[in-house]
Design a protein that fits this description.
This protein is α/β, with parallel strands linked by helices and about 400 residues long. Helices cover about 40% and strands about 15% of the residues. Strands 2-8-7-6-5-3-4 form a seven-stranded mixed beta sheet, sandwiched between helices. Strands 11-12-15-14 form a four-stranded antiparallel beta sheet. A hairpin with a 5-residue loop joins strand 11 and strand 12. The protein is globular. The chain binds D-malate (MLT). The site of D-malate has 6 residues, from loops.
Length: about 400
């Protein structure tokens, strides 16, 4: 008899953003004339940077025979991209990461979901609560049901510390999705010291690092002393450079990072991740990687920063408006997400905004129990839509 993976029965039947899309579609069907403004899923709205577009056009010409044609590329990513990443994202900022420690992929979501395959079924996982659902769901799908939740509350500034954490692997994401909270260097250093002392691992999701404007806040876990022996960092070009529809990201697995066999023998993780990726993945496309390379040119850097500043401008407008309406709001300063205390049921509040204001948000409960009482608002939209959404919220709230 054909057996299913019964772990799937332990997760919700639909992924959070699929559930939201379903409710929005039903609302639109019932009100075909409603102009719905989407501030739910963090999906970019601004066009790609001009440097990226030019580089991708040129890459299409290469593939069309006007330059160097490329078939299968290296599964770890082209050297031209990995070397730029190592230099601009790390070495120029005084961080010792080399190109061979970087593996390019088709986005952070896949890497976040796939990385758990490297570890034993019995490893103990810890995540924040609320949390990006991918970390939890992918571990439950793999049979790890007993996941430790670290409450992220207004009392701890939405940044839990390692005290009392008994896990082997902790997922940390800063700037945080969904709360928009940022972690100080001292807070991250405490986690690094904890992980090194316990021989544990930090899976650091830095998908939103490009939104950090406060120079005191680390943009990489490797800014902390000792992080190379206890942390994997996952990055994305989705929010940094508007690649949600293009798909590209990368994961840093330092050469010195190990996990252990049952007999205590250390096993380096970088060759394992390389083995996994070269077996199950054929690499991001040449055209995509040429586009990603252009992000690292001086013009590309400036263009991408300007687009992020624009989204941060949206966040500020919405944060100010919600505060004027009397709501407690976290995030939005070094992050594209606002975390709004709605002092009530988050799905009810979500439905109210959808039905009465035609504005889509994300209910906090969708990110975990401790998200109840909050909604997440994304700053990814046009300025006109953000201003219009603010006017509608003022009327409804
Ligand atoms: C979000 O809205 O949380 C993100 O866009 C989802 C993702 O990056 O997969």
């Amino acid at each position: 008899m054909l057996h299913v993976n019964e772990n799937y029965s332990k997760i919700k039947p639909t992924y959070l953003f699929a559930e939201i899309a379903h409710r929005v579609t039903a609302h639109q069907k019932a009100h075909p004339d409603a102009k719905v403004i989407r501030l739910g899923i963090g999906d970019v709205t601004e066009p790609l940077a001009p440097s990226v577009i030019a580089a991708m056009h040129k890459a299409v010409d290469d593939e069309g025979g006007k330059g160097d044609f490329h078939g299968y590329g290296p599964e770890q990513g082209y050297a031209f991209l990995r070397e730029k990443i190592a230099k601009v994202d790390f070495q120029d900022r005084g961080i010792d990461i080399s190109a061979d420690e970087i593996l390019v992929s088709d986005g952070a979501k896949c890497d976040c979901g796939n990385i758990q395959e490297l570890f034993g079924a019995d490893v103990k996982i810890a995540v924040g609560d609320p949390v990006y659902p991918v970390y939890v769901d992918t571990n439950v799908m793999a049979g790890r049901h007993d996941i430790m939740l670290l409450p992220c509350t207004a009392e701890n500034g939405f940044v839990p510390g390692p005290e009392g954490c008994e896990a082997d692997i902790v997922y940390l994401c800063y700037p945080n999705n969904p709360t928009g909270a940022i972690a100080t260097k001292a807070q991250l250093q405490a986690w690094v010291d904890w992980a090194n002392a316990k021989k544990a691992l930090i899976l650091f999701d830095a998908a939103y690092e490009a939104f950090i404007r406060n120079p005191e806040i680390p943009r990489s876990i490797y800014e902390c002393a000792g992080a190379k022996t206890c942390a994997i960092e996952i990055r994305s070009f989705s929010k940094t450079a508007g690649f949600t529809g293009i798909r590209c990201g990368y994961t840093v697995v330092p050469n010195e990072l190990v996990a252990y066999n049952a007999d205590g023998t250390p096993v380096p993780l970088r060759p394992m991740w390389t083995r996994r990726q070269t077996t199950k993945f054929n690499g991001a496309s040449y055209i995509t990687q040429r586009g990603a390379e252009a992000i690292y040119s001086p013009e590309g850097q400036k263009e991408c920063k300007d687009i992020i500043d624009f989204y941060l401008g949206n966040a500020k407008l919405m944060k100010d408006a919600l505060k004027t309406l009397g709501y407690d709001v976290t995030g939005g300063d070094d992050s594209p997400y606002l975390w709004v205390n709605v002092k009530g049921d988050s799905w009810e509040f979500f439905d109210k905004l959808l039905k009465e204001a035609n504005v889509v948000t994300t209910p906090g409960a969708g990110f975990g129990k401790a998200g109840e009482g909050y909604i997440r608002i994304s700053a990814f939209n046009s300025r006109a839509n953000v201003l219009e959404a603010i006017e509608r919220l003022k009327k409804v709230l």
